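Morning!

This is the sequence you dropped in the shared folder:
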Amino acid sequence: MNNKDFYLVSNISIVELLLDPENPRLRHAADQKECIARIIRKSKTFLNLLRDIAENGLSIEPIVVSRNAEDKWIVRDGNRRVAALQLLNEPERCPDPVLKQQIIKLASENPENILKQINCFASDNEKAILRYMDLKHTGANQGIGQESWSALTKAIFNIKHEYPDQNKRAVQLLFWAEEQDIRIDDDFPLTNLTRMLNQKTLELIGFKVENDQLVPIIDTASARCLVERIAIDLMNSAIQVNDIFTSEQQIAYIARIRKEVLSGEPISLNAKERHDDSSTNLSINYPAQSNKSNRETESGYTEENSIHKNSNVSFLNPRPLRRRSTPKKSSWDRECIFPRKNPGFYIPPENVKAYNIVSELSKLKVKQTPLAVSMLLRALIEFSESRYRNIHALSDKNALHKNIAAVAEHMATEKKINNEQKDVILRMTRDEKSILHITTLQKYVHSPSFHPTAETLNTLWDEIGFFVSKCWDT
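The structure's back. C-alpha cells below.
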C-alpha cells in the first residue's frame, strides 16, 4: 500500500454513497436501513459525532471508498461520518424518533456545515484498502500505525493551547526538567507526579507558583538533582502510587531523597529569595508520631520519634530516614486483591450478590485469574456506588464514572472522606485512560485484546479501597 494506490474523487453526492454492510462495525447488515440502525445503537457517541459535524464541519480525515460490482461507491472507511451526513441531510431516515428530533434541530441550526457532496479517496486495490484500514484501526503496530497520545503528550497539547488540564503543574515541572537536559519520555507516568505535587511538596523540591508558573526558590543545581531523581524513580517504577498515596508519604519520600541526593548540605536560595524571606515558607510541619519509639511509613522508612507533632522542622536539613532491615514487599505484588484477604469493610448479608462477590474476590489469586478478578471488581464498584446513591437519594447520572464522581463529591461534603481522597477519585473518573473510568473498566470486561494485569488490579484496589469501604459504611 502506498499513495499511488489511491486517487481523489471529488464531489461525490452524499446520497450516492453506500454504507458498507460488511464493515466490522456493521457485520452483515441486510441493507442500508439496517446499516444506519446499527450505527445509531451507540446513540450517545453518535450524537456527539452528529453535533461535531453540524457545529464544526466534516473533519479532514480521509473517507475511503471503492466500487462495488454494480459500479456504485461503497464507503470502506468513514461509515459513521457518512451516516451522520446522510441523516443530517435526511433526518427522516433515522429510525429513532428521539434522535431524529435532535438531528432536525442540529441541521436547522447549522445549515452551512451540512455538506451534500464530499471528496473521497478511492482505490481499486483491495489489498491496499485492507492494509490501510488495518493500520488505522489497530493501534500503533510497533510504530507502523498511528500512535495514540500518552497522558503527557495530551496534557502538553492542552497546556500549550491554554485548555484546562489537571496535570498542569506536573507538566510545568517536566518542561523545566527538559530545559535542564533531563530526559523525559512520552510514556512518563504523569498522573503519579501530579499526585505528588502540592504547595508543600513543591517547596520541598525547590519551587513555588508565581503568576501561574513554577519558579525555582533554590539554586538550579540542587533543584535539578532533586527533579532528576524524582523523574528517574517514577520512570523506573522505583516509586509507585502506593508509595506516595498520602501527603505524609509524599513528604517522607521527598525528605528522604533530599538527604540522599544532597547529603544534607544546605541549599542556597536564589538572589531574590535571599532578600525576601517572606516570599515563601521554608519549613514544614511533620505529621504526628505514634506512641512507638519509631514509626514505620508505608514507603518503607522510619522516622525518629524525636520529631514531635507540630514541631517546625526545616526541610533544608531534614532529619535522616533509615531503611528497615527487611524491605517490605510491594503492595501490588500481593496474592489476592484484598490485603490479607480481608476487604476491611462489612457488607450486610441481605446484600447477597455483593456479599458473594467479596467472598469470591477474597479467594481468587489475582495473578492466576486477572480477568475474573477484573469483572468481579467492576461489579463490586458498581454495587457499592449504587447502594450509596440509593441510601442518600442521589440521582443516577447514567454513567458509572459520573456516578462515582457524584458519590465522591457527596462523601466529601458529608466529611466521610477528605478533599485529597475526593480528588483521587475525581481524577480517575475524568481521565479516559484511568483504570477507574468506564472506558477502561469496560475494556476489562468486553475487549478481546485488553488484558488487565495483577499489578494494575492490585494498584486499583490500593487507590479506591477506601471509597468502596465508605459506600458500605452507612
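Headline: The chain has three domains: 3-143, 151-328, 332-472.

More detail when I'm at my desk.
O.
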